[in-house]
Amino acid sequence: MLLCSDERNLFNHFMKAICSFDPDIIMGWDIQSGSLGFLAERASFLGISLLNKISRTPSEPKIAARDSGIPEKEISDNLLPESVIANAVILEDSIIEDEWGRTHASGVHVGGRVVLNIW
């Protein structure tokens, strides 16, 4: 069991778990509105780019780490304090961009991973 002080902390632990297991396939029941899609929408509301952070696609911090010669692990261990992250307001576009994507199981994309709808 994992106890977290707030939702942001819970999402940080979830993202670390996904990245540490590094699955090729992510499966869920009703991906768009019931599992991963719901989590992504909630994270977006909190200013967290969940789908980008659990993807295998390099993001800006990872590219900077390679260019600077600093190992990625050191950068992830020295992230901003939780209080700074909590005060930041980052808005991202809607997770599921269109109604067709929402109704035809094509709206949730995680770079480098296969997302399967189990239903």
What attributes characterize this protein structure?
119 residues; mainly alpha; 2 strands; 46% helix; 7% strand; DNA-dir_DNA_pol_B_exonuc; DNA-directed DNA polymerase family B exonuclease domain-containing protein; DNA-directed DNA polymerase activity; RNaseH-like_sf; nucleic acid binding
Alpha plus pi helix count: 7
SSE string, helices as H and strands as E:
HEHHHHHHE
Helix content: 40-55%
For the largest beta-sheet, the strand count, sense and barrel status come to: 2 strands, parallel
Average pLDDT for all residues = 74
Count all strands and give the number.
2
Point out poorly predicted stretches.
62-68, 83-94
Broad structural category = mainly alpha
Biggest sheet strand line-up: 1-2
Radius of gyration: 15 Å
Shape: globular
GO biological process, one term: error-prone translesion synthesis
GO molecular function: DNA-directed DNA polymerase activity; nucleic acid binding
Protein name: DNA-directed DNA polymerase family B exonuclease domain-containing protein
Pfam family, one: DNA_pol_B_exo1
Describe this structure in words.
This is DNA-directed DNA polymerase family B exonuclease domain-containing protein. One of its GO terms (molecular function) is DNA-directed DNA polymerase activity. InterPro entries: DNA-dir_DNA_pol_B_exonuc, PolZ_Rev3, RNaseH-like_sf, RNaseH_sf. It comes from Liquidambar formosana (Formosan gum). This protein has 119 residues and is mainly alpha-helical. It has one domain. Helices cover 46% and strands 7% of the residues. It has 7 helices and 2 strands, in the order αβααααααβ. Strands 1-2 form a two-stranded parallel ribbon. The longest helix is centred in the N-terminal third of the chain and has 15 residues. About 16% of the residues have low confidence.
